[in-house]
Amino acid sequence: MSTEPEDLTQPQRDRLAFIELRVRFLGEVRRQDLFTRFSIQAAAASRDLATYKELVPGNIDYDSKNKVYVRAEWFRPFFDFNPTRVLTWLTQGYGDNEPMRHRPLIATEAATEISNPDLETLSVITRAIFRKTAIQVTYRALTSGMTTREIVPFALADNGSRWHVRAYDRRSHEFRDFVLARVADARFVDGPIADDERPDQDIQWNRIVELELVPHPANMRNPDTIESEYGMSEGKLVARVRAALVGYMLRRWNVDCTPDHSLKGGENHLWLKNWQALYGVTNLVLAPGYEPEEKA
User: Fold this and answer.
1) Mind listing the domains of the chain with CATH numbers?
2) How confident is the model over 138-145, as a mean pLDDT?
3) Would you report the helix, strand and coil content of the chain in percent, each value rounded to 5?
């Protein structure tokens, strides 16, 4: 007697969705992954994998040499995942159950996502990150238009409004950010990656910048409100941020980066007190009020 989707219990659907997430976006799943995540026995994990293979024949193959189930060549999704949920699962380690369409317990709304990546393209990128391999992408750049290049991706990053992949770009010989929604196509590239393409060589990614944020001295009449809102201690908030992400963070929170806190916009609630800490950060074109010559 074959298993039909309507015959599954919700816990089974959760585990099968987890199998598909692992296979689709990491390229593999093991029994260990299931009984570690769901505290089930090995026999139950084997049954779940068999059930998934029965429901979606041809989605996974068993690699007997490495004792792991891998994504098959003609994979087709069984579950309909929202890109935001997938990115949350990939980057924060929770929300890895099947998405449910139900009424929330209390009224809840979020800002509309207007820049979502293609999930199949994303799956190539995330599998490349997991495998530590290079990919060829077709990328829509603002300045050069449609280009084809080889990159070595190693991390995803959320700048607050859209997602990027951090990667070594073999065309420019630099580590760069690529907007996920601008990647039109991606495919694997055979061959090893060079030592200078590895994440530990990305200076901007590995450098941690310590930023001292304080209520804006000119724009905030009641600084204690800002201190409370941001959980400041002794009138300041110390944020430790990767140099590669500093510009995004300062822009997202509209932090005034001028030495004399001269920005007068009502959106500038915060001032970067130790603006000297920005020395050597490369993406400061995004930082509100930043002027390179003033920090030379």
Assistant:
1) 7-92 (1.10.10.10), 119-202 (2.30.30), 207-295 (no CATH)
2) 90
3) 35, 25, 40
